[in-house]
Amino acid sequence: EALSDLLDQGGKDSLEVALCLEATKISPRAFWAFRRLGFLLVHQNKWSEAVQSLQHAIRGYPTCADLWEALGLAYQRLGRFTAAVKSYGRAIELDNKMLFALVESGNISLILGQFKKGVEQFQQALEILPDCVPAQYGLALGLLSLAKDCINLGAYQWGSSLLEEASEVARKSARSFMNISCIWKLHADIQLAYARCNPWIEEVQKLESDKEAFSASIISWRKTRFLAATHARFSYQRALHLSPWQANIYSDIAVTSDLITSLSKNFKQDLSARQLAEKMSIGALLLEGDNYEFWVALGCLSDHNALNQHALIRGLQLNVSLAVAWGYLGKVLSDAISKQ
Fold first, then answer.
1. With bands split at pLDDT 50, 70 and 90, how would you rate the model's confidence at 31?
2. How many Cβ atoms are within 10 Å of 89's Cβ, its own excluded?
3. CB neighbours (10 Å) of residue 100?
4. Mapping DSSP to helix (H, G, I), strand (E, B) and coil, where does residue 135 land?
5. What PANTHER family does this protein map onto (predicted)?
6. DSSP secondary structure letter of residue 304
């Protein structure tokens, strides 16, 4: 073990691995060797071999939180999420300050669709380190996913409140770390979802007798959605500035610009904003010309009938089972026939 320390200090990992392997062959109770070997194999991304060594090491050091955390990481990289969660959970039981284990447990919960559990785990991580970027990102993403579930169930007001909380977390993270593209994109995704789902929740009975109050309420609700969409486009543009090679951000800006146009007072006159959506859709296709979703987006957002038809047909050539594309193509053809 002392020799392993010297090799570790000298950065001679291959010799240290060979020494630990030799020690484990000589004695199956050389738990120190299994522990070192497990950590080294994790460092070398040899996940299957690492699992075996770490399992042996845990027999000798059952209360070592670092071993359980490393075992959880190895299971996670192998796609064995249930085993990974159990290992991370054991590490957290032994040491409730295991930040990495909490963050990765939260990530796995989101992958498995357990959004509420994931949110709780990220919140625990932020109690340990309030400025932890992965935990902030995970919390905002978990709240967004949970909000989408609520919206799909018809709980728009609850979903809207979750989106407000998610937006605040993402905004705080983006302001602290302004050069991370994915955080800006996540903030934009949250704002776009809020602009789409934010419900009008005024009590109709109180407004029935007051037309001015009713009108003001509708205008205020529309303005809230418009501002959210505008903030979303700004954040998408910031993300695109940091990662101009990401085609999906071009498409996101196109969709958001179209929503802004529909919420604008000058819907018919705002020609430049409508053209922006078309240009950004084309920008996405310049980077990924075989992406059927981008073709369908262009077909839905363009103001030119011929381009609508071409884009939708191209999207259907790439994926013939797109119900939205078939429906919109039918609408475009119907409009073209009615104009003749």
1. confident
2. 16
3. 17
4. helix
5. SUPERKILLER 3 PROTEIN-RELATED, SUPERKILLER COMPLEX PROTEIN 3
6. -
- Angstrom distances, CA of residue 117 to CA of 71, 106, 132: 21, 7, 18
Residue-averaged pLDDT of the chain: 88
What tokens appear for 1 in the block?
A: 């073990």
Distance, in Å, from the CA atom of 45 to the CA atom of 49, rounded to the nearest integer, reads 9
Q: Are 120 and 96 a contacting pair, CB within 8 Å?
A: no
Per-position b or e across 279-309, b if 16+ CB within 10 A of its CB: ebbbbbbebbeebbbbbbbbbbbbeeeebbb
Helices (H), 129-210: 133-152, 156-176, 181-197, 204-207
**Residues 77/47, Cβ–Cβ less than 8 Å:** yes
> For residue range 111-155, what is the model confidence (pLDDT) as tens digits?
999 999 999 999 999 999 999 999 999 999 999 999 999 999 988
pLDDT tens across 186-229, in order? 999 999 999 998 777 655 555 566 677 777 878 888 899 999 99
- The answer to whether 102 and 125 have CB atoms below 8 angstroms apart is yes
Q: Measured in Å, how far apart are the chain's first and last C-alpha atoms? A: 87
Whose structure tokens read 């979802």?
193
The encoded tokens of residue 60 equal 């000798």
* Residue labelled with tokens 């884009």: 311
In angstroms, the CA 291 to CA 97 distance is 44
Q: How far apart are CA 33 and CA 60, in angstroms?
A: 11
CA 104 to chain centre: 14
Q: Show the tokens assigned to 255.
A: 């969709």
pLDDT digits (tens, 9 = 90+) for 104-120: 999 999 999 999 999 99
Length in residues, the chain: 340
Q: Which of 194, 205, 151, 153 shows the shortest CA–CA distance to 170? A: 194
Instruction: Determine how many CB atoms are found less than 10 A away from the CB of residue 158.
Output: 16
Two tokens at 180? 């991370």
The tokens of 251 are what?
């498409």
